UniProtKB/TrEMBL annotation:
Membrane-spanning residues: 5-27, 61-80, 92-115, 146-174, 209-231, 251-273
The protein, known as: Sugar ABC transporter permease
Domain of life according to the entry: Bacteria
Keywords associated with the record: Cell membrane, Membrane, Transmembrane, Transmembrane helix, Transport
Entry-linked PANTHER family: ABC TRANSPORTER PERMEASE PROTEIN (PTHR30193), INNER MEMBRANE ABC TRANSPORTER PERMEASE PROTEIN YCJO (PTHR30193:SF37)
Organism in which the protein naturally occurs: Roseobacter sinensis
Length: 281
């Protein structure tokens, strides 16, 4: 086969897959969002934005992302650094830490529901220690802070491994000679981390943060399991428009709004963590 044609042949299956399962549905969703029976219109967006739950769901989604993603980044960096320095048992520890990757969003929410519900582990422990006389309904409108905390903890536990895997791979690409040279010149572990590890990890940090931020704006199942309607988020409202209110136009508009927010934050992350042209490890 001609060497010039071979690359195009190799990427053809992926291109067809993306067109069939991503590009085509995106065109259909955009058509639904910007059209009604009367033709092109922005009525679906006006309806969505004017709904009283929209600012609340927007605030909750942004607040949850702002609370979860930095904690996950710090934990992933710490865990990746620890794994990289381990001489024995590295693979076992990494395997154990990445187990939550094999658990679905809904299953993770149900696991943490078993901890926070009235008959759950937390109430049983507090009752056994004599802290409470009767079970407390933590996941209720009376405890909005606990609902938020439960959702945040479930997300941190479930999705930190995504960033961990990316950062472990990135740290593994950093030449050991840099650290050895820094040790010779008396650099402390903190300086080696801030002057070598973090700068060299920029491409991996870009990938990890972009992926995690996008997924944070798409959170739904964990919130549905733990918060239900007490903690509305953008993706939950999209589901409600599509399946509860049977309003596919408004659901499509919500989906495009989430897409727009994700693209905006992606551009910010790429700008802040931009890698200089020609930079290599």
């Amino acid at each position: 086969m001609n060497a010039r044609i071979l690359p195009y042949v190799l990427i053809l299956p992926v291109t067809l897959f993306l067109c069939l399962f991503f590009l085509y549905p995106f065109v259909l969703v955009s058509k639904q969002a910007f059209s009604t029976g009367a033709g092109f219109t922005l009525d679906n967006f006006r309806e969505v934005v004017s709904y009283w739950k929209f600012p609340i769901s927007m605030q909750n989604t942004l607040l949850l992302a702002a609370a979860v993603v930095p904690v996950q980044l710090a934990l992933a960096l710490l865990m990746a650094t620890m794994v990289n320095k381990m001489q024995k048992g590295r693979d076992i520890v990494l395997y154990i830490w990445t187990i939550p990757l094999g658990i679905s969003d809904l299953a993770a929410g149900i696991i943490w529901l078993a901890i926070f519900e009235q008959s759950g582990f937390l109430n049983s422990m507090m009752s056994g220690l004599g802290i409470v006389d009767q079970p407390v309904n933590f996941l209720s409108y009376q405890h909005p802070g606990v609902v938020f905390l439960a959702i945040a903890l479930a997300e941190i536990w479930r999705a930190t491994a995504i960033m961990l895997v990316i950062l472990v791979a990135g740290i593994g690409l950093i030449p050991k000679e840099y650290y050895e040279a820094a040790e010779v010149f008396g650099a402390s572990p903190w300086k080696r981390f801030t002057r070598i590890t973090l700068p060299m990890l920029r491409p991996s940090l870009q990938t990890a943060l972009v992926l995690r931020v996008i997924l944070a704006f798409e959170i739904f199942a964990v919130v549905a399991a733990l918060g239900g309607t007490l903690f509305p988020v953008l993706m939950g409202e999209t589901y409600a428009y599509q399946f509860d209110l049977l309003n596919s136009g408004a659901a499509a508009a919500m989906a495009l709004i989430i897409l727009g927010i994700s693209i905006a934050f992606t551009l910010v992350i790429l700008r802040v963590l931009r890698v200089p042209k020609g930079a290599t490890i």
